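[Q] Does anyone have a clean structure-token version of this?
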Amino acid sequence: MKLLTATRSRTARVADVRRAKLILMLEEGQSRDTIMQRLECDSRFISRWSSRFLSERLAGMYARHPGRAPKQPPAKLEARVLNYTLRRKPSDGSTHW
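[A] Here you go.
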């Protein structure tokens, strides 16, 4: 039920919806070729997410990529943005805020 809800959601992440559609299509018994064509994916995508779902159920449906660390500290970036904003006036005469 949760996977079906995810596929109909208008606010869910696209990647999550795609994974949910994959699992539902496999449950319906659709062939790998059909799934690859409809979802525009390769067989590795199908293998990865179907095996994660089989072993961990819904808990396995999240991406495990940790992301990357920011190139500079967030406080430094925030200071740069504020400095830029406060020192320059908009060309159309509007206020900053």
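[Q] Thanks! Anything notable?
[A] The mean pLDDT is 90.
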